[in-house]
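Notes taken during the Thursday session

The instructor put the following on the board and asked us to keep it in front of us for the whole hour. The protein is enoyl-CoA hydratase. We were told not to look anything up and to reason only from what is written here. First, the residues (257 in total):
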Amino acid sequence: MPFELIRTKVIGRVGWITLDRPDALNALNAAMVGEIASALAAFGADPDIGCVVLTGSERAFAAGADIKEAGERTYPETFIEDFLASWDAVARMRKPLVAAVAGYALGGGCEVVLMCDVVIAADTARFGLPEVKIGVMPGAGGTQRLVRAVGKAKAMDLCLTGRMMEASEAERSGLVSRVVPASDLLAEAQAVAEAISTKSRINTMAIKEAVNRAFETSLSEGLLFERRTFQALFATLDQKEGMAAFAEKRAPQFRNK
Ligand code: CO8
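Then, after some discussion, the predicted structure tokens were revealed:
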């Protein structure tokens, strides 16, 4: 995949996407978001990939949407183009997504993190939605997904002041799954992604869909969705294999069928 602003690689069954625009702290411009969407589509369609890791550099996961690219836009342009709608490609990814975050994850960078499923943060990571400081507001899901991740009081604090939060506060607040020393970040992300990618893909995709349904529906509807999906897994060979392997005290050989 020939890209200019991201790098991709595959380790085992894990696809890696590394944001690579160092002179702008990985600020997300339209071209970069397009490249991320293409890479996700390719990994999504690849039967040998079970999980994708999204990461940046030691200094920045991404310091936001590209402010310089956006400054002169007009409302009619943003409306007609449906500016920022293309970012939904990250949220629409059906395979599990692990964010490996070091340094700044601000504005749109933080919003991309909020679209990921497991968030591994280096102790150097700093999260924030500072759009209020530049005359706008979060526009790629920040006001909605942050509330669901950390609750209203913390989300209001971050959105209204634009302050940054350290990795430890982000973990306490529920934005981050685990915090690790910066030197361990990539290995930890690979280990988590590997653990996910060696499971049955039908299973991990179904789990992701069910957990995300919790944000979209009532408890009773969500519980029904979960139970029906759970029941549906009994139609898969991987369920038979997983339970047989347990009984026979061996590792399961999942076939995604
Ligand atoms: N957009 C464009 N360029 C950026 C961005 C950005 N978001 N962030 C950093 N850069 C550039 C800087 O302009 C600088 O470039 P240059 O060397 O050419 O001047 C380079 O990256 C390095 O940055 P700094 O020199 O500022 O590095 P510091 O270590 O001094 O500071 C900070 C790091 C604190 C992260 C600082 O760069 C900063 O505050 N960045 C902006 C953070 C921000 O406000 N992010 C939110 C942006 S808005 C958003 O994401 C969603 C709303 C949608 C708005 C529409 C946009 C498409």
